[in-house]
Structure formats: structure tokens, C-alpha cells
Queue: 4 jobs
Job 1
Amino acid sequence: MTSCKTSERLEEYSVAHNTIAQFFRSFSMTPHKASLPSYYYTGESWTKRAVELIESAENYVLIDTFLVGSHVNSIKIFEALSNATKRGVTVKLLMDSASYYRKDRTTALEVPVPIQDIKAMGIDIIEYNPIRAFKIFRLLGLLDRDHRKFWIIDGKYLVAGGMNIDPDSLGFSYERGSIDGMTEIYSPQSAAQMINSFIRTWNLYALEPISSSSFPVPSVDEGLLETEVWLLDQNTETQGVTTRMFDSVFSQAEDSILMIQCYMILTPALLERIAFTIDRGVEVHVILSANHVSARFTYATYYSIKDLLEVGARVFIYESPEGSLLHKKLITADDSIVAVGSANYNYRSQTASREISMVFDDVIAYDRLSPFIADVRSHCREVSEEESLSYRGLAYYLNFMMMQLGG
């Protein structure tokens, strides 16, 4: 989990490449043509758009989500999916088995997973890597989770980010629903990549395998393609692309980096990336969240604030007026680079989970985020060195260690 080579590697990247494009090209990674991104930050806004996309679908809707749970807004989505199947649209829903092991943070009751109701609505749903008692003897197998959240509509639209189909993600502000994000692009090229990834994942557990011939990608409307996106899909065949996404931003930033992170559980190598960038004269701001779902996430995340301050980062804590969790995973640099998706800044997202990220190097893509960033900053307070010392107790340390793989 440590890497004495991190700084040397980043130094090589920063010398060899002048742009994100050059960095990714050195790994034979090419961008996809795409529309400028549209961003959604609340359960209300994403539910509304999700239903619109489903209702517009003519051929198929493919959804990969980490968590599923009962809520009035998730029911709206399931009803829209059910109606789509009735008019002949193919619907496939892939969820992670972690859905069954959660409690509502406001009531402490188990979050219902309406899988039987979903099936009764005619929606084809499969569980990724089912968690069963006998698997306790295969701990590493249990750690393999599909943490991605992405939607594909008719091979035209790809939406990805941090929102699940559950109460935390889709809850209303008065219910303390999370502040999060989904990023939508029109990009048949990106959709094609994720269709193939979805099929490979689905077929690991399906009784009846599916193939790409059932999910054609239409011809491209060139008039909608306004930018480029690097699509990083971390799965069993592409392990390590989340680390590559981190390296791209930290090696290419020249002036400033903003990190909005819900679960920042640092390793020495992850901290070294931040230290390296600061040593090059780049200002790094880190925004963490109050109002975590459980104390272990607070302890594990806050433990490293002292380390961040010691390497020169400025750390802020977002305190929502409604008591919401800031669940978004976002890194920006130099007012033009945007890296957004499902990956947390931790070891687990680097190694044990399937993750999806989008990277843009586009001033307009960044500018569209500016109102959100400004709003988040308006509810932040900066953490002092004295406060950071209060997060170094035994409970913080134990949870920090435990959550290296569990967070």
C-alpha cells in the first residue's frame, strides 16, 4: 500500500507530458468525441432527468448501480423502467449485493431492497457478486464490488457518477438526501465501450447470456459532438485505471487542484501525490463532508486531515444547511480539467472495486461546474491545525486502518 516510487513516477509524467491528452496518449488511451457534459447534483433533479431519459428510450436501457433501495424517487424510476418494457424497450439492471447490508441513517432501520417487486414489474435484474455466508472464507472475493453507477440509453447517452438508486442518493433535501452528482454526455463512442463492459459483467451471473448484437449503437450526430472525454472503466480487465486517473491530474496540474471527496482514506502513496503537487507550487484545496452515514467513515476520513495540512494542503469541511452528506467525487485542476465519477480517493477504489471516471480538459466543461463549486464553498469552514489534532485519537486510528479496505 506504500509506494516510494510515486513522486519519481509523477515527476517523469510531468516532464514528459504537457497536457492530459499527451499523458493518456502515452498509455495508448484515446478520447471519445462527446457533447459537453450536463451535471445533476440532487436526488430530485437526477430522478426527473432519469425518468425523462427512460421515457425517451426506443430500444434499450442498461443500468449498472452499486445500491438499490426503496424510496419514492426510486419507485418513480422503477415504474418508468417497467413502462418502458411494456412498450418493447429492453431493460437490464445490474446491482451490487452490498445493497442488502445497509441501514437508514435517520431511522437506523434496514433499507428495504425491493428486488422481488422490481422483478414483478418486468425488469430484468441481476445481483453482482452475491454476498453469501460461505464466502467469508474467500475474503478477497467479498471485496470485489461493482461500485460503478452508469446508465446507457439507446447507445446514445451515457450517464455516470456517484448516485445510486436508493434513499441516500435520491432523497429530498428535507430528508437529508446526499449532495452528489451524475454527469450526462451524448457520446455513442463512449456508450459502445460501456455496453461491452456491461455485457461482460452481466454475463458473469446471467443464466441467459446477452450479446452486443442486441444493443446496436446508432450513427453519430456530429453536430452534438463539442468536446472530448477520456472514459476510464476499471474492471477485471483494466485494473489500475483509477490510479492512472489520479496520476493524470496530479502530474499535469500547474496552478491549482480542488478535491471534493466524501471518503478520502489516505495511504502514503495517495498522500505523496498531493505532497508532490504542492512541492511543484500547485495550490491544493480539499473539501470533505460532515454528516457521514456512520461514525466509522467520519473517523477514517478525518484521521488524515493532519497529514494533509502538514504537506501544505488547505482542508475544508462542508456543512450542509439541511444536514446532507456531500457524496460527490470530483477533482478539478487549473480551471479546465475535470475528473468525475464513482471513485473515491482511497486504496479500495484503486484496487478492489469496479469504478468509472470521466476526464475532461475543457474550460466550458469546467465552467458548467462553477455554480455548484461556489455553492459548496459557501457552506464550508476551514480546518485548523488545532482541530486536526482532535482527529488523532484511538477510535480515529482504528477506523482509519479498518477502512483501508472497507471504505
Job 2
Amino acid sequence: MRKFYLLLCCQFLFIAAFAQGKQNYQTIQDISYRTTGDEYALQRCKLDIYYPENTKDFATVVWFHGGGLSGGSKFIPVELQNSGLAVVAVNYRLLPKCDFTACIDDAAAAVAWTFREIEKYGGSRHKIFVSGHSAGGYLTNMIGLDKKWLQAYSVDADSIAGLIPFSGHAISHFAYRQSKGMKDTQPSIDEFAPLYYVRPDAPPLVIVSGDREMEMLGRYEENAYFWRMMKVAGHSYTYLYELDGYDHGSMAAPAFHILKNHVKDILEKR
């Protein structure tokens, strides 16, 4: 009987210790990051924040959903939950209810909100990473490489701890090219192409693509050129991953493993 009670006590202590070590997370939904603008902007420009409670100086991933800049909605990726990271999931205005530049401007405004507000939740403004899939990857690239978007909100793009686009455009976005009467198969590199702003002093850049034979319209190859030109320009922390066997949609799930590894690596190298 004494052995039974001893075993029971040990189990209770183990469960109590496990419960103490388990991190609790809080989610706050539909926070407005714009307080002025038209009705659509006020309706759409909202974000959710998911963060570890009673924790200080945690890292944060600002996450932009995909959808070709004309669809999609914010969500907290399950792969980033319970990982010690905060997630700021962003809704931005969508075409055709806005013009193309509004999508990029909203992305910048949401990142600027994170820089202003994250410390109120316990996070560090020095540990803010930006990521997204497809259209979200394009927005990640644009606001991280072309500094004018964040400068409009008094934030230096180089303050971002890392850019981690998943299968985002490096050339001008296809929605922008379509608005110019161009075909999806006609590439361009102009002021709306991240490649236009290749520079050695950009934040750390981790590019993730699906299988080149399964991706959309040469998405791997344009990102490979993006990676190469960043290296040629002298950028010291640029990585490119191709996820064999994964197409444009399915590549996001395994890409989160790469994201978490690089967040850890970047923070350890500081």
C-alpha cells in the first residue's frame, strides 16, 4: 500500500511539474491597426495576436496570408502555436476593392503596429520577424527590401530581425502585371518587384520555395535568382530552400520547420 501511495505521489508531482512548465498562450482578435480611412480599410485592416503569457522578450512572427492579393484571411498557423513565439496574423485590403499599393501599405502599417505595440504584451521589438505564404511572401519581400513603405510609419526596415517568405514573388506580382494588361507568363522587374531593391544591408533573408517542377509559373527560379543577386550584392545572411515533392500550396506546412530553425539561429548569432 505504501508503494502505491508513493507511486501516486510521484505521478502527482510529475503532472504538477509538467503543468508548471507548460506555457499558456493568449489570443486577442480583430485589433485595428488603422484608425482612419474608408469603410473598407477600417473593416479589413485588423489583426490577431497570439502570444505566450507571463513571458518577457519573446520573438514575434508577423504572418501574412496568401490568396493572390485578392482573397484569403488571417489565421494563426498551427505550426507556430505552442512554440515560444508570438504570432501577429494580419488581414490586409484585397483587390479589386483597393488599389495595388494599398495591399503593400497595409502590410507596412501592420508591421509598424507590431513595433509600436509588441512590448505591451511582453515581446521584444528587436525580435520581430516577417513571413507569409504566396501573396504574403511577396508582401514580406516588398516591405523588407523597399524601405520607403516602412519609412512612412517611422520604422526602419532594417530593424526587422528576419524576412522569411514562403513561395513569394521576387519579380513584380502577377496581379500588378495583370492590371497592366500583361500575361501571367510575361515577367517584369520594376518598382513593384522585390528584386528591384536587392541590397547588402537588408535584414536576414530566408527564401523557401516548393518543388521547381510543381511550383507556379517558375516561382522557384525567380526566387533562385533573387537569392543569387542578394549573394552577389554582398548580403551576408541569405538562404534558399527548395522543398522537393511539395507544390505551391502544400509547401507551407514543412516550411514552418525551416522558419523556426532560422529564427533560433538568427537570435543566437546576435
Job 3
Amino acid sequence: MKRRILIVEDEEHIADGLNLNLEMAGYETVVAGDGQTALELWSQGGFDLILLDIMLPGKDGLEVCRTIRKESGRIPILFLTARDRDDDRVAGLLAGGDDYLTKPFNLQELLLRVAAIFRRQTWYSASELPETRYQFGDYWVDFASYQALGVTGEIGLSQKECMIMKFLAEHANEVVPRDMILDAVWGYNVYPSNRTVDNFVARLRKIFETDPSHPKYIHTIRGVGYKFTPSGESGTSIEL
């Protein structure tokens, strides 16, 4: 069965180019020219990926992404935008995006990133863990439902939050460099930056640590990355 992609782009020539190249690559595509139409199409279901421009008439891409993430953490979202500042990239990813490609972009690079997103989806579904619900201390993460039990009770996690937790759980008690996390969760280590990983880890600590400044589970290893200790070891964690 073909993967189905929703293209949300208000510039007609770009939308047409994306539509043609993705169809030639074997994907099924649907095009929306504004944020509201995109949300209406997405609500009908059946999409495997959304290519989402940020600068849209009416609801912008960030608002569309946040709306979708309130309902579902599962569908991957690849932002397409002319904004290339690091802050804009981080904002898009923290809003729930899975990747970010700056215009003008090479179509071959776009196709490679789309393929990488689907590879990561396959990795996430084929867990090395014995159960989809992973227990550590008093808390748990359910990698199938994207739900978790944290300090404040049950909460929904974003796809990226779940993917990072899954990767850390698969490497419990090991020191994992940030680049390894980037490669596993985003598919490459050129972009986004290590800062993005740090931002996501900070959010996970707020969920699972009673004192995020002195974590028991997700420790920073200075100059390297992180170490996840499911048994709950106390220790000092210094942010880089």
C-alpha cells in the first residue's frame, strides 16, 4: 500500500513540484493551500506524513501543528519554510514537528528526509523492549498509546518525546552521545542541533523527575550526552 502524504503549501508552483516528485517516488499525495483546509483534510484520516509550510494564509503552520498534536502525537510532520534561523527551527520542532527543511531546498534531499522519517517509524514500531509499556521507578511510558505516568499523573507525550524515551530505554545504564540520539530520532546529525536534544530532555525531566535540577533517571554526562538509569540513581546533572 502506498504511503499517503498531505502537502500543505500555499505557493502553487512549489506545491505542484512537490506533488509531482512525490508521486513519481511512489507516494500518494493530497494538496492543501491553507491551514484550515489542511486541518479539515487531516481530520478525515488516512495520512502517513504531513509536509507543512509555516507561512500560510490564515492559520500558520505552527498553529496547524499544535492543533494536530493536541489530537495525535503519531503522524510525522515535516516543516517546509523560508525561515532558517536556529530559533525558528527549534520552535518548529518543539511545536511537534519531526523535521525541518529550509526553502529553497533540493528535491532529492526532501525525498531522502521523507524516506528517513518512514524508516524511523519502522524502528519505533519494531521495539527491542519486551513490552510496549515500559516501567521505571513509579513511572511508565506506553510506546503504543503515547501515554505516560509522570510526576503529576497520566499525560500524553509527543512522538519525539516517546522516541527519545524509547531510545534511552533501549540503552538503559549506557552513556549515549547526543549525536546518537539525533541519528536515531531524527535520522541524521547535521540538523537539528544538540540544543534541540537538550530542550526535549529538559521537557522529559519535568515530566518524570520530582526535582529536574537533580534528576534520578536522566543524567547529563558533561561533554558527551545522557545516561538513563531506570533504577533511579541520585546524582548531579549539569546542563551544557
Job 4
Amino acid sequence: MGKTSDRNEDFYRKLRRKIQVWLDKKGGSGSRWADVLMSGPDLFYLMWKLSMHPEVPVKSRRILAATVVYFISPFDLFPEAVFGPVGYLDDIALTAYVLNRVINDTPPQLVKQYWLGERDVLMVIKNILINADKFIGKGLWDRVKRRIG
């Protein structure tokens, strides 16, 4: 594994731990968006791995890579430094939206290989997209989707 790979593996583990600690303090799975927040690290990992895989179309890899940058950037709609792990909700929604767009052009065996979540990835994505306007705000979520195209 190279340095970039190690950093992203560490990001995945740290993110999962950070969210779990925060949820435990807030009452664990009783938190309104606990399932969505806990799916974030798994979605990030899938997106990151697909963004580098040569079997994924170049256009899809570029979109995925740009979304990886957004996810790890401290400057976004809901900064994690201000909102804590709840700040990942916009990152998770955007990741689900992008994965939903590129997953049909991605070899299914790659999605299966890189999905670390316990539930079906398509159901996780669908659930997030159905509820994104509730945790981001409908007007804001609509603007984000329009901007992505």
C-alpha cells in the first residue's frame, strides 16, 4: 500500500471511530441520523476505491475523485469543525448522489468488492437520497443537485 492509500485507510478508520464516539455520547443508535452517519465511512471507502480503479470509466473516476476531495475538505456546506459529525451529512448525501449516478457504469464485482457496509449498498444509497432533503434542507439539496447536473 502506498502513502495515499494508507492515509485514506486511516481516514476511513478515524472517521468511523469519530462518528461512533459521537453517537455513543448522543445516545448511540437512537440518534435521528445514526444509520446515515455510520454509512458515511463505507460510502467514502467505496467512492475512494472506485475513483482509482482502471475498470471504472474515466469520466466516472473524475467525478468520484472530485467528490472525495469535497468529502475530506474542511470547507463545505456543513463544516465538521463547526457541526461535529453531523457536518458529514452533506458529504454523505453528495457521495450517495454521485455513487448513484456512476454505479451503473461500474462493474458490479468492484462495487461488491469495495463495499464494507453491512446493508445492501443500493438500499443505503436509496435511503440517503430519499431523506437528503430532510437533513440538508430541501432548497439547499435541490441547489446542490442542480449544480452537479
